[in-house]
């Protein structure tokens, strides 16, 4: 009897030890499911989509039992920044609805948002944009919106008020747009971004088809380089052809 009891105890100990080793070898992890709803909005959840026929991508999160996904930001959250949005939209001649849509997609109206690529604040300013527009604190809504709208205006000027190209450049950078012949780059993220902002902005955006080339002209004023863009070939000075059709 004693030997049988000891045998059972040894077996119980071995099973328990094996279970512990399995737990160590396979740390707990959570799953994130990503898909787009019927309105084209990106959805992140720790559960599979309830609707049938929805294709979801799955991402494992090692060493985490639970995940928190950001919630869709209601338009009411933008009201805290409406005065700043209207002020700078009027100053730079940019649609307030466009600015608000960019802000919602970029940060969901979170003034302390950070991206893995280094973009900061409400309009997700990149370090180069922060320096260009003299932003001292990118998490200050007034400074962030001022610089973000000014940069958006610069892109609209660059692409002759073509909102599609300006938004593509805001997301992927002007170089990506220029390198693809002044077209939206064939990046899924950028195309989804343009479509999402377009939807939220509340007005269809049409792509302006144009012929000819765009010229980048660099002038030096008081020792400082000033860049401008034109569709007319400069008659004097140096310039760079960015492309065209």
Account of the 3D structure:
With 245 residues, this protein is an alpha+beta fold. It is 41% helix and 16% strand. The chain folds into three domains: 19-69, no CATH class; 75-201, Lysozyme; 213-244, no CATH class. The protein contains eight helices and six strands. The strands form two sheets. It has a three-stranded antiparallel beta sheet, with no helix packed on it. Strands 5-4-6 form a three-stranded antiparallel beta sheet, with no helix packed on it. A hairpin with a 5-residue loop joins β1 and β2 (42-45). It is globular, with a radius of gyration of 26 Å.
Task: Give descriptors for this structure.
Lysozyme; disordered N terminus; 6 strands; 41% helix; 245 residues; 3-stranded antiparallel β-sheet
From the 3D coordinates, which CATH architecture of the largest domain would you assign? Answer: Orthogonal Bundle
Low-confidence stretches: 2-8, 13-28, 67-74, 204-211
> How many DSSP E strands?
6
Largest sheet: 3 strands, antiparallel
The third-level CATH topology of the largest domain is Lysozyme
**CATH class call of the largest domain:** Mainly Alpha
Order of helices and strands: HEEEHHHHHHHEEE
The overall average pLDDT, rounded, is 75
Number of contiguous helices: 8
Supply the number of structural domains: 3
| Shape category | globular
Chain-wise SSE layout:
Blueprint: H1 2-25, E1 29-36, E2 42-45, E3 57-62, H2 82-92, H3 96-107, H4 127-132, H5 141-158, H6 163-172, H7 174-179, H8 188-201, E4 213-221, E5 224-230, E6 239-244
Antiparallel strand pairs: 1-2, 1-3, 4-5, 4-6
Helix pairs in contact: 2-5, 3-8, 5-6, 6-8
């Amino acid at each position: 009897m004693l030997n049988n009891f000891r045998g059972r105890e040894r077996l119980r100990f071995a099973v328990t030890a094996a279970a512990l080793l399995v737990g160590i070898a396979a740390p707990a992890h959570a799953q994130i499911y990503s898909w787009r709803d019927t309105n084209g909005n990106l959805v992140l959840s720790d559960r599979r989509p309830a609707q049938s026929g929805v294709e979801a991508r799955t991402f494992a999160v090692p060493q985490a039992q639970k995940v928190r996904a950001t919630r869709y930001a209601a338009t009411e959250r933008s009201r805290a920044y409406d005065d700043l949005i209207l002020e700078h939209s009027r100053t730079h001649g940019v649609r307030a609805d466009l600015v608000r849509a960019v802000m919602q997609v970029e940060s969901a109206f979170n003034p302390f948002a950070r991206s893995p690529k280094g973009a900061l604040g409400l309009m997700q300013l990149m370090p180069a944009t922060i320096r260009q527009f003299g932003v001292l604190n990118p998490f200050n809504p007034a400074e962030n919106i001022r610089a973000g709208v000014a940069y958006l205006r610069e892109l609209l000027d660059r692409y002759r008020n073509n909102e599609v190209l300006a938004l593509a450049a805001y997301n992927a950078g002007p170089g990506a747009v220029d390198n693809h012949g002044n077209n939206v780059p064939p990046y899924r993220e950028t195309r989804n971004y343009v479509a999402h902002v377009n939807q939220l902005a509340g007005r269809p955006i049409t792509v302006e088809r144009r012929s000819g080339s765009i010229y980048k002209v660099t002038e030096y004023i008081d020792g400082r380089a000033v860049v401008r863009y034109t569709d007319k070939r400069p008659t004097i000075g140096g310039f760079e052809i960015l492309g065209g059709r």
